Amino acid sequence: MTPPSPLPDADELKPPPLSDAGRHLLSISDLGAEGIEEVLRVSDAFVEVASRPIPKVPALRGRTVVTLFAEESTRTRLSFETAAKRLSADVLSFAVASSSVKKGESLRDTVETVAAMGVDAFIVRHPSAGAPAQVAGWVDATVINAGDGWHEHPTQALLDCYTIRQVLAERAGRPVSESGVGDFAGLRVAIVGDVAHSRVARSGVLAFAALGAEVTLVAPGSLVPPSLEGWPVTGVSHDLDAVLPHVDVCYLLRLQTERGAGSFLPSIREYTAGYGLTLRRAGLLADGALVMHPGPMNRGVEIADEVADLPRSLVLRQVANGVAVRMAVLFLLLGQVVRGDATGTVADLGHGYGPVDG
Amino acid sequence: MAERRPAGAGGRATVVVRGGTVIDETGERRADVLISDGTVTAVGPDLDIPAKATVLDAGGCLVVPGLVDLHTHLRQPGGEEAETVETASRAAALGGYTAVLAMPNTNPTIDSAAVAREVLQLGETALCQVAVAGAITVGRAGQCLAPMGELAALGVRLFTDDGTGVQDAGVMRRALEYARGLGVTLGQHCEDATLAAGGHMHEGAWSSRLGVPGVPAAAEELMVARDIMLARLTGGRVHFLHLSTAGSVALVAGAKAEGLDVTAEVAPHHLSLTDGELSGYDAVFKVNPPLRTECDVAALRAGCAAGTIDAVATDHAPHPPEQKEGPLDVAAPGMLGLETALAVTLEALCAAAGDEKGKGAMSLHDVMALLSWRPARIAGLDVGHGGDQGGPIGVDGPANLCVIDPSERWEVDPDHLASRSRNTPWAGRMLTGRVRHTVYRGEPVVIDAEAQR
Amino acid sequence: MAERERRLTPPRGGVFVPRVQVLAPEDVQRAITRIAHEIVERNRGLDDVVVIGLQTGGVPLAFRLAQVLEEMEATTVPVGMLDVAFYRDDIGIRPVLAEAITAIPCDLAGQLVILVDDVLFTGRTVRAALNALADYGRARAVQLAVMVDRGHRELPVRPDYVGKNMPTRLDEQVDVSLDGVVLGDVVAR
What we know:
The complex is a heterotrimer of chains A (358), B (453) and C (189). Chain A is α/β, with parallel strands linked by helices. Chain A has helices at residues 32-50, 74-86, 98-102, 107-115, 131-138, 154-172, 199-210, 240-243, 268-275, 279-282, 305-308, 315-335, 346-353, and strands spanning 64-69, 90-95, 121-126, 142-148, 188-192, 214-218, 235-237, 249-252, 290-292. A 5-stranded parallel β-sheet of chain A has the order 7-6-5-8-9, with helices on one face. In chain A, strands 2-1-3-4 form a 4-stranded parallel β-sheet, sandwiched between helices. Chains in contact: A-B, A-C. At the A-C interface, helix 1, helix 12 and helix 13 of A face strand 4, helix 4 and strand 7 of C.
């Protein structure tokens, strides 16, 4: 009998970078610090592409990318589809009503049917944690997790890291392309809100911590995960006022309003009173502290209207960077697949693939 | 019953189990066992072998009373795409079992004499004895008491709403009081529905990391504690099904020390697997109660060694592939167990075996007690209750035997299981200890690890 | 070719072993000066000229060439760099480099682009570069300057300005920098 794999420490989550080994992006832990850094670096190139008169490159011409969304999320789907199209991939959009899965057609049948049409990548959004990992086991194509249950939303965390890196580089007055990830060392990040039910929080914690940030969770007790064993966080607080003056980034999570129906929280009003970033609370933030939110925002719940529109709020920039970061992920996973024997000799590569056509 | 079996010729044959070590409740000794007409006719070293006798080689093997499974989901009626009485009984025989207790969560539920009779009738041609557990409440809905008297008259000795616990303490109290008058046992699937709601694996470090809704240990322990109090209140007899947490073991130990009439079983997978198995979201490891932590595994093993746990029961729960291929929160809970239980239990508990979690503390004799004569007694299938299971191997005793090679290493291949389903958590793993022959009421139903029909 | 690029290109970890020094540093300097003269002569000055170096080997040459042009004509010459990784037909063989930044100094519509690279070999990089340039606007014309033309073309591409024509074997490598041109081999480590 083989023992079950032990719970991975954050320190151990360091597989080789994406372009070398990874075929899928299911979790931030597939990347490790090096992989995250690589994605951020390549994202720079795609931010530049986005600034061109014609913001489209032929890198993934002939590749087919399917967005398989078993849970509606227009913004995430559009972001991925824009990214794929700007790389010249063919994009098929497939919406699976989650109810139809329950009604008999298994996810596996659906996925295998679509895969048989010749698909290079599946971008999977699913209400069940682990569904993208399962899809990866059924098909040969690359699988990218676009959000699975409460588990992870890795591209959201990557675009958040990119946005932080971009802003910090601008403040330091240097081009973002010259920024490594050194700015994250010791960066104090508070993730505020419904951590227990948040895939954004899980990916965010792993990504920020992998790059060296100190992550604090701030949430009411009923919205803290049952166990934080193995989570690379410095602490948990139930007092947002006390935390705010000491953070560089205040990352607000979306509160699903049904949580306020009495089972997890007495009311939305009480949540906002304790954990919403009101204008008063925003005043507690240190100068230059950043306010982030994965969207869509519940204005007046986790973030006050006035705060959402403050210059320190990066919400729209997060959205804009989303396309570039997802282009980087798609390019690294699909464009970097070495076809043929990577250990061959130069002579084998000879015609057309000569590495010397500098 | 043997007379009614069409294949009864086998039961009439003369069989010699030669060269093994007999282990039963009375102890351990080197002996051959001679069986004629479905009864043991001689036990002793180097017996003369009659002409035309079927000789079963037991060299290097243990010869034990047939194993008794307190917890089998046969799926028939209603779930024949997953398993039938016949296929499950073949799996049972291959796993060394000569009796299984069919759980009542079939469709329809075994909550009436008609359904119980149907299953008992299907069991008459099976490769092992098929006993039936009845539901405590009608449709296992937890509200109205099922006709326990009518079922008890058919020989039903254990009642349970397995698959769910009886949530209403008042209903459980009345059931215990009523059962006391019938001399039957109530088995409880301990799970508080409000605490377990929406959970799909053990609530802890792994569920938190994987983003999967969890079932806290307290969901089980709350009901164990409640039913111990109800046992105290009513004087009724409670059998705790598939306990999975350290806290439950402690509660049962306390109840036993107090002298309450409680017994408990544990499933082999809870003795060896932990929630970390779910790190890849493979629903084959989804089971109810869920796989718990290393601490719980250690406490369950210790509970077996200390006598707190009375039986190892498989909770054999077949599911067709489509019910195991979906996402974790959609997939059905449950795993196969009949064909692997013996090996897994030996590895987990036995001092002579031992796996990577450390050597077990128990003798072969004590492990066999958990698998054979103690569960036989709980199910009311032992000689004392007029049955023929789990008894000592002696002259004129019942010829339900199992011959075990404790050192054979084998790989579990789901495609070669007798069960109709493939949802074994041991697929591709090496196990140590295998059933070589099984003799059911004098008939060698398994010879050299091959089912004979 | 940049050392890092070679490291990431099959055979991974191969080492460049120099064999013959073909051009000395001053030869490279003279070739750049000559090419600058040819550019001015052919285009009758430097009106609308933009110099774009191809990442990674063409970039230092482009900056040097622009500097020579500016000194020669006492004017300013916009200079930029272009990475064609996303346009290549052999994506997956060549890595995307961190330092491979694209920076185009101005709108290219109506401009005369001098594309600069270190080595012209199969012509595929230039093909990719032409596609990339088109996304920045419709240049009036594009001319190609290379330090070494080593032959073995696989596409109908012809340079306008050449530092040195140099016949090579397919399995040889040419290393070009402002410090000279060296012919050698890549040996798997």
